[in-house]
Amino acid sequence: MVSASQDYQPDPVTMVSYHRALAEHTDSLKAYATRLLGDSIAAEDVAQDAFLALYRHLNQVPTAAFRPWLFRVARNLCLDQLRRRKFKLCLFRDLQKDDDNPFVPADAGSARPDQLAETREANQAIEVAISELPMKFREAFLLCEVEGLSYEDAAAVMGCPVKTVSTRLFRARQRFTSLVSRLIKV
Amino acid sequence: MNCSTCRYELSQCLDGRLPSGRRAIVMRHVETCAVCSAFWTDLQAAQNLTLRLAKMPVSDGFRERLWERIGAGEGTPAAVFHEPVPLLTKFRYAVTGAAAAAVILLGVTWARSDRDSPQRDPVAHSDRHPGSETVERRGPMQPTPEIGMQDASLFWEARPFTCELVAVESAKQLEQRHATVTAGLRRLNQDGFAQDAARSNAAVQQILRDADELRVFGGLLLDLRDHKRLSFTDSEVDADLSRAVKMLRNSEQLEGNLETIRTLVAPALNSGRLANVSRTIMLPPSDPREDGDVLMRLIVTRHDVFPKLFIVFGNNDEAYRDFGLTGNIFEMRDECGPVWVAPRSVVEAGDGRLRMRSRLSGQVLPGIQILTGRPKQGAAK
C-alpha cells in the first residue's frame, strides 16, 4: 500500500464532486471490472480500491477527469489481478457459480415473467459475446459502447492513441455483431 | 467509396464522430449497397442490445466499507500505478537486450583473440608445414581469403615479429657486411690496386658504406643485449663487437678516405670472431609482450635499421610469392595495426622478386612491385 497523502483533507467543494462521482460511477465501474475480470466480488473490490485511490489523490485529479481516472485505475487493478490469477482462473473456472452475477434487469418492475426470462437469456448471450472478445477489443467496446466514454477518454484509459481506440472499437463491433447475430435477427 | 471504408466510418457515425458532409456520403453509399446497409442495421441493433445490458449495482455496504477504509487511513493499492508493459515493448526490450549482449560478446571475443593471438602463433606455427592447406583463424585482423587459400597462404602463415628474428637477421647482415669489408680490405692491400685511383676510391667508399651498416647492425645487437633479449655465449665476441661499434662510430667523425680505413676500420674489424656472430648469440625464451615493448622502442630509436633488415609490405594489400618465401612472412604490429614484413636476407638469397596485388581486385599491382637482389635464371617473370 502506498500511504502518501493520507493526511490530506479535501475541501468541501471537492468532496461534493467526489460524492457525486461515487453516486454516478460506482455501478459502471463495477460492471466494467466485472466484465474484465469475470468475477463480480473481485470487481467490487476493484471499484472500492479505485475510489479509495481517488480519495487519496483528490488534490491531484481535476474534477472533470474523475471518470477516466477511475476507469484507468480500475483497468490497472484488473490487469494486475488477471496477471496474478492467470492460472488460478483457469484451474477453478468450472467451479464458478452462475449466481456470481445475479441478474438485475434494467426495468424489472414492469416486466412480465416471460419477458424477464427472454431478457435474461439475451443478456447472457450478450455477456458471453463480450467475454469472447479479445482483451484489447473488449476494453474498447466496454469503455465506448457500454459505458459511453468518449474516444479521447477511452484513449486515456487504455493508454493508446484515439485512432487506435476507433479501430479497436470498429473491430470489436464487427465481432460482436457476428457473435450476437442470432439475437439481432430475433 | 469502398465497403470496408464505409463500414469503418459507419462505426464512427454510430458514435456521432463523423462530420456531416462525410456522413452524407457514407449514408448515400449505404442506400445503394445492400451489404453495408445490413451492417449498419446490425450495428444499430447491437448498440440497442448493449443498452439493454443488466446493471451491476454494488452491494449495500459498499460506501460504508469505503469510508471505513478511508477513515482507517488505508493507502492507495500499489497496483493502481502498476502500468502493464505492452507485449511489443517487452519484445523490443528483449531484442535490444539480446543485441547488446551479442555486441558485448563479440567485443569480448575480439579482445580476447586480439590479446591471445601473439601467444598462440608460435605454437601454431611450429606444427605447420609449408604448403599445408590447414588454415588456422588468427583473429579479426586477418585478411579475408578472397583470392583463394593457396595465394593467401603467406598471410595465413605469417609468424610473429620477435626480437629473436631481429637479432638473427642483424647478425646475418653483420656477418655479410664483415665479409664484404674484409674482402674489400684485402683488395686494397693487393699490389698495384692503390695506384688505380678510380678503382681505389670506389672500393674505399664501398668499404665505408659496408662498415657503417655493420656498425648499425652491431649497435642493434648490442641494444638487444642491453634489453636482455639476447646474450653472447662467447664474451670475447661481445667485447670485439662493442669495440668495433665504438671505433666505427668514431670513424664517422673523420674523412672518408684510405687513411681512415687503415687507422680505424681495419683495426676495428680485424677480429675473425665477427664473422661468426650469429653462432654465438643466445636467445632467451620469446615473451611476446616484452618483445613488443623492446621492438617498439627500437623502431623509434633506430628507425634507420629496420628498412635495412626487412622489406615492409604494409597492411593494405595481399602479397603472394613466386618463390622461396613460404614461412618467411612476419607480422609486425604497431599503433596502426599489423604490418607484413619479410627478412631482406631471405629475399636476397632467393630470386628476390616479390609482387603485391590488390586485395579487392586481385590484380597484380606493377607500380609497387619490389625488385631486390639478383633474379634467378629461369625464374617466373
Give a description of the structure.
The complex is a heterodimer of chains A (186) and B (381). By secondary structure, chain A is mostly helical. Chain A is built from nine helices and no strands. The termini of chain A are far apart. The model of chain A is unreliable at 93-99 (pLDDT under 50). Chain B is an alpha+beta fold and 381 residues long. Helices cover 55% and strands 9% of the residues of chain B. In chain B, the strands form three sheets. In chain B, strands 1-6-7-4 form a four-stranded mixed β-sheet. In chain B, helix 1 packs across helix 2 (20-32), helix 7 runs antiparallel to helix 8 (197-226) and helix 9 packs antiparallel against helix 10. The relative contact order of chain B is 0.08. The interface between A and B is large, with 58 and 41 residues.
> Strand percentage of chain B, roughly?
5-15%
The Cα radius of gyration of chain B reads 42 Å
End-to-end distance of chain B, in Å? 78 Å
Low-pLDDT runs of 5+ residues of chain A are 93-99
Count of alpha and pi helical runs of chain B: 14
Which whole number gives the mean pLDDT of chain B? 74
Oligomer: heterodimer
CATH class of the largest domain in chain A: Mainly Alpha
The proportion of residues forming helix of chain B, as a percent range, comes to 40-55%
Arithmetic mean pLDDT of chain A? 81
